[in-house]
Amino acid sequence: MTLNSGESVDESLLPGYEFFRRIGSPKTVVAPMVDQSDLAYRCLCRRYGAELVFTQMFNANCFVQGIDYREENFQTCAYDRPLIVQFCGNNANILLQAAKMVEDKCDAIDINLGCPQGIAKRGHYGAFLMEELELLANIVSVLSKGLKVPVTCKTRIYKDFDKSIRLCETLVQVIYAVISRIEQSINRILFTRRVPPC
To answer: Is pTM beyond 0.90 here?
Structure first.
């Protein structure tokens, strides 16, 4: 396989593509939107051609601690597949607990490493974790080993492209350490490398 950059990749090293094909090789994807990507919105998007959708971002602490939060914010149905559920947080064990509550109702779990909002800064999640490579490696490793669905990471790209590559390389190292459990992250990292910095 050859990427747009001309770089050659051994497809046998990329089980993420197997996952991507298993969910139908979606071309139209609806990204997560805070307080908007609920079941009704996701079904409407599917009706108009979306082939893969994400839930809105769920705070892992709230998801684990509050049954009301879970019941009010997370609903799905048979029509709502393939589905990726997105969580934010900075504690690997709490993220794992939250993800285990939905792993049988989705196709993958996504860790939000992209939210730049003030609430993410106060809560120490989203884009504010991107500098903490050791913590991220631990989070991805714990989730990958503890879940039966793939784990993905939505990230931002630094203006300093080398920093973006270091972030992706850190995630790739974790991925190769637990490759049988972290299929989709490789796919996401490769796509991230192809997107020009903003």
So the answer is: no
Domains in the chain (CATH in brackets) are: 15-194 (3.20.20.70)
Amino acid at the residue 170: T
Q: How many CB atoms lie within 10 A of CB 112?
A: 24
Please give the Cα distance from 143 to 153 (Å, whole number). 11
For the CA atoms of 187, 193, 194, 198, the dihedral, rounded to the nearest 10 degrees, stands at 130
From 106, 115, 153, 168, the catalytic residue? 115
Q: How far is CA 55 from CA 31, 58, 139, in A?
A: 8, 8, 20
pLDDT digits (tens, 9 = 90+) for 63-99: 999 999 999 999 999 999 999 999 999 999 999 999 9
Measured CA to CA, the distance from residue 125 to residue 88 in angstroms comes to: 6
Reply yes or no on whether 115 is catalytic.
Answer: yes
